[in-house]
């Protein structure tokens, strides 16, 4: 399960220091901060997952599922979701 916008906002608020109120100040701070840590503002997969959903894997939610309907006819359901590539 992905986190909501509030948690993503909190992630960035925890990184950006107080007193940054405009684009120029942010860019100045960002250039300096990223020179020390180029991926400082990058979210990791773990950051996007809720802790209570940490055990959820793609094995539990396959891209294709076969099942039978009430008349015992076999149907296949295929996900249209695309996997993100890193």
Account of the 3D structure:
The protein has one domain (5-78). Helix content is 34%, strand content 12%. The protein is built from 3 helices and 2 strands. The longest helix has 14 residues, at 23-36. It is rod-shaped. The two termini are 19 Å apart. The model has no long low-confidence stretch (mean pLDDT 78).
Give a nutshell description of this structure.
With 86 residues, the chain is α+β, with helices and mostly antiparallel strands. It has helices spanning 5-15, 23-36, 45-48; strands at residues 64-68, 74-78.
Domain module tally: 1
How many beta strands in the DSSP annotation? 2
* Poorly predicted runs of 5 or more residues: none
Structural class given helices, strands, pairing? Answer: alpha+beta
- Identify the strand order in the major beta sheet: 1-2
Distance between the termini: 19 Å
Biggest beta sheet attributes: 2 strands, antiparallel
Strand content: 5-15%
On the 0-100 scale, what is the average pLDDT?
Answer: 78
Q: What general outline do the C-alpha atoms trace? A: rod-shaped
- Helix and strand pattern: HHHEE
Number of helices: 3
User: Roughly what percent helix?
Assistant: 25-40%
The Cα radius of gyration reads 21 Å
């Amino acid at each position: 399960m992905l986190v909501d916008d509030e948690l993503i906002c909190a992630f960035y608020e925890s990184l950006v220091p107080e007193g940054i109120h405009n684009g120029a100040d942010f860019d100045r701070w960002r250039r300096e901060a990223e020179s020390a840590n180029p991926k400082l503002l990058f979210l990791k997969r773990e950051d996007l997952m809720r802790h209570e959903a940490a055990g959820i894997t793609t094995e539990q939610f396959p891209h294709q599922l076969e099942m039978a309907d009430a008349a015992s006819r076999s149907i296949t359901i295929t996900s249209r979701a695309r996997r993100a590539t890193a």
